[in-house]
Amino acid sequence: MNFLSPWFLAGFALIAGPVIAHLIRRVTRDRFSFSAMRFLKESPPRLSKRSRIQHPLLLLLRCLIVAVLAAGFARPFLRRDLPLAPVNGAPQSVVAIVNVSASMQRAGLWPAARQKIADLAATLKDGDQFVLFSASAGVTELISRERWAQTPPDGRAGLVKNVLASVTPGWGPMHLDAAIETAVAQWEQMAEATDSTAHKKLVVVSDFTAGTRIAGLAGLAWPKNCEVVLTQLDPDHTGDAGLHWLGWAADTAAATTAGAPPPAAVARVSVTQGITNPARDLHLQLYDDRTGNILGPGQDLTVPAGDEQVALVPVPADAANGPLRVELTGDTETYDNKLWLIRPTPRSVALVYHGPHSGDDLKHARFYLERAVAGWKDPVVTVRGATDAPAAGAGQTPASQFDVVAEPLAAADAKALRDRLTAGGFALVLLNDPAMVDTAAALAGETGWAPATTARPDALFGTIDFQHPLFALFADPHYSNFATIHFWKPQPVALPAATKAAVVARFDDNTPAVLEVPIGKGRLIVWGGDWSNAAGQWVISTKFVPWLESLVERSLGGASHAAVAEIGDTGRLVSGPAQWRAALDINATFVNAPPMSPGVYELVEGGTTRLVAVQVPASESRVEPIPLDDFEKLGVPLHANPADSAAAAALTPPKPSPGTQTATVLEGRQKLWRWLLAAAAVLLACESLFSYTLARRAAAPAGAK
Amino acid sequence: MPAEAPTPPARGIDPRSLLAIRDLELRARVVVEGLWAGLHRSPYSGFSVEFTEYRQYSPGDDLRYLDWKVLARTDREFIKKYEDETNLRCLFLVDVSRSMLFGSQGWTKADYARTLAATFAFFLHQQRDVVGLGLFADELVDYIPPRWKPGHLRRLIAALEREPAGRDTRLGHALEQAALLCRKRSLIFILSDFLSPVAEWEAELGRLTAARHDVRVVQMLDPAEQTLEAGSAAVWEDMETGRRVYVDPVEARAGYQENFAAHQRELNAAFDQRGVAHQVITTDQPLDLALLELIQPRGAARRLVRRRNQ
């Protein structure tokens, strides 16, 4: 029998209490009232020996209760069980995860983290396996199992030190759940390589801020014989103020100062204040990121602890049209005090209509095109005739052109248009007349196209390829019903066998209705019919405008994405292969890897280039410690509370006695104190019953009223 | 116990059951119902008489008792002979001092005495006798003169039901006050434990008998008071004076019984000397049997009924 808290055995001394109490001769305190005291004489008091113990059985019971309670508090355990913790010589698989997210840039955290890892490595035995990961938005293996095994034991401390010296906290968010999943997978690899029953230990060294993502731990399957040690780091300064992007304000009048010209744009940012942050008075300032010049007067903010304040940052009208930067000063921790801004620049498209028709004639497509594109914010579309000159004084020349061909083109015009298409342009040909088929064939550069006759003057779309980008917008079954749109003047095309044209939609008689022909870098879309209310219901259907917008977006290289993203979340900006480059670094080259530090980047995707502001994740500003109970709720097999001295001792020198942890585990498994407590309760009940019996027996002769 | 006391029947009403009845009047009714009709004679000639026999008139007889109807019918003089039995005037003096609060049976002597007095009063009231009540401790704390009127019995019982105030016993003073208040010749029952020294009340008792009252003493005792079979080695406290003494009843029993017997002898002598009937009733006796003992006619010297030949 061993005891985890043997100092409680001093409670056995309390047995002296009942012994002394039973030795003391009790002076009778009984009273008896009697009526005929006149005939009584006082009895001489009976003297009993002081050494005589009254009610020895009762005394025994009471002594037993004290002894059992003292033994229970001492937390006994038996050594005969196999210990869970590794004994000397039994190898264990240790995986360590060190947090390198942005919040670890706070003062005092990273040196402490390196020290904790170094201390952990020092406690490992020669046969132990060890893997070190750094974790942020992704997981990086700093020390692999093989590298650890290949390093001589006396060089392992140096290995850890050298590896950690080359690592610094980054700017990403902390996805701890993903890191722990990686660690669990690593255990499986270790088990395959060596003994699968080896004790598994995961040590997480982190600041465990509230922004740490741990939700993914809920469904994690933990292997047997594993334990997780959470080592929380304390920064030098508590609290933090953060700066976060909200968006561009639609109304610039709100931020206009008296006497000053209206700003070019107004950025809306949020300033969050930590609960324990001592800094209350903050200052916001806008800079030109390219030159570093101060823009505007700046703002003083007083944000109460735990509060969040939204601030409007006006961009002066005379500011250069380049990347901007907002900085927050007055905060101790500066890693999340900068924001990069890209001013919104709506794309412009010239929709060139090839046809003699005016925009006021509702029998022709131009009428519907002009009304469909009216009011678009991005892209901004202007419709003009092919023979019209660009609108004078419009300012900028539209960067892109989209051609809609509604009349047969002359050979020269067709060639010019085909050249534009080859260079990457988009054009739409409306087959409002059988003669238009030849124009379409000329633009496509193919022969053998012929107008096909349709059996019925009332046609519907029979099949539509919703996988094709032209109709992918309506792929959802909620929107894929085209059966209510009638085409009264369909003009299908009979295609030759050898054609590059892809039939995207067919009429219900299976004749081609909508074609797309790749021409160089561009695309030619052929619509089998006219766009007017006389030709069908297409132009007045609810699907017409979204379809047209998606087509124009496609001609511009894709839908307009937000030009702001957080580190670790830049993947949502791209839909395919993309390349990044720091916008202001003249030496930077395009790389495929998404950016891992904040700033302004050029994103090249699908032939288009745009600027993207990459910010520090907002979650990294939530630096309040996460309640470690949350890990238990998620089923994490915690070894002990990190605040516990036992857990802290596992990571900090001096080295703990191996037997201490073993004893704790044994005692925790056996829980003998519960049996002792139950025995004390039973003894207490017996003592109460016995005392009651004795008291009744003593009081029985007394009959006084 | 007096030698002429009738042998009590083997069975009676269990005092434990009886005293468990909370209502005193109901308790009295339970005892009285079925009890043998009281044989009682007034010590004083009343105005209501009961004819028993005739005898020949002789000169000198009171002409009030001449039977004129017989004289008219037979022309002979007969005197009616009466026995005075009714209009018994009875007064109960009940001790309510602190010493009467002792009881080792689950009830006190005061409970028993109050029940006995109420029962007897109820019995007499049914016989249309006049009954009075005096409650005493260090003095006569409550006095209801003998009456017979509607509601009188209820008044008596209400007085008896009142919880005793718990004072010292000064029997002599109380008897002196009773003698002053009860002028007419009466049958007086004194219900007390008579544990106080005889010298404290002997003279006042003699004054009552000298006033030609028929005084009868009922000494209420708890069985433990006779034998000291109670209590344990503890500090014993005098209920009257509050004096505390460590007493081991085992050791003190013999001396106590001796002293108690001497006190009883002294009591008997005092009562005999003044012609006072003395009856000891213990609280474990069935109450109806105790009542029977009280109402049974005694020997010639202590007869309740005094015959008076007209």
Describe this protein with a few key phrases:
heterodimer, A: 705 residues, alpha/beta, Rossmann fold, 8-stranded mixed sheet, 5-stranded mixed sheet, 14 helices, elongated, B: 310 residues, 2 domains, 6-stranded mixed sheet, two-stranded antiparallel ribbon, 10 helices, 10 strands
Quick synopsis:
Chain A is of the alpha/beta class and 705 residues long. Chain A has 14 helices and 29 strands.
List the helices and strands and how they pair.
The complex is a heterodimer of chains A (705) and B (310).
Chain A: E1 2-3, H1 16-23, E2 31-34, H2 56-73, E3 76-77, E4 92-99, H3 109-123, E5 129-135, E6 139-143, H4 145-150, H5 156-165, H6 176-193, E7 199-206, E8 226-232, E9 241-248, E10 265-273, E11 281-288, E12 294-302, E13 308-315, E14 324-329, E15 338-341, E16 348-354, H7 365-373, E17 380-385, E18 400-405, H8 411-422, E19 426-430, H9 436-444, E20 450-451, E21 461-464, E22 493-494, E23 502-507, E24 512-519, E25 522-527, H10 544-555, E26 564-566, E27 578-582, E28 599-605, E29 608-615, H11 629-633, H12 645-651, H13 658-670, H14 672-699
Parallel strand pairs in A: 4-5, 4-7, 7-8, 16-17, 16-18, 18-19, 19-25, 26-29
Antiparallel strand pairs in A: 1-3, 5-6, 9-10, 10-13, 11-12, 11-14, 14-15, 20-22, 21-23, 23-24, 24-25, 27-28, 28-29
Helix pairs in contact in A: 1-2, 2-14, 3-5, 8-9
Chain B: H1 15-19, H2 24-32, E1 50-56, H3 68-74, E2 78-83, E3 89-95, H4 109-126, E4 130-136, E5 140-147, H5 152-161, H6 171-181, E6 187-192, H7 202-210, E7 214-221, H8 223-227, E8 234-238, E9 244-247, H9 249-273, E10 277-282, H10 287-295
Parallel strand pairs in B: 3-4, 3-6, 6-7, 7-10
Antiparallel strand pairs in B: 1-2, 4-5, 8-9
Number of strands of chain A: 29
Alpha-beta classification of chain A: alpha/beta
Annotation field: number of helices of chain A: 14
Please give the largest β-sheet of chain A.
8 strands, mixed
- CATH topology tier name of the domain at 348-555 in chain A: Rossmann fold
Number of separate strands of chain B: 10
Q: Can you identify the CATH superfamily of the domain at 348-555 in chain A?
A: Class I glutamine amidotransferase (GATase) domain
Oligomeric composition of the shown chains: heterodimer
Biggest protein-protein interface?
Answer: A-B, 25 and 43 residues
In percent, how helical is the residue content of chain A? 10-25%
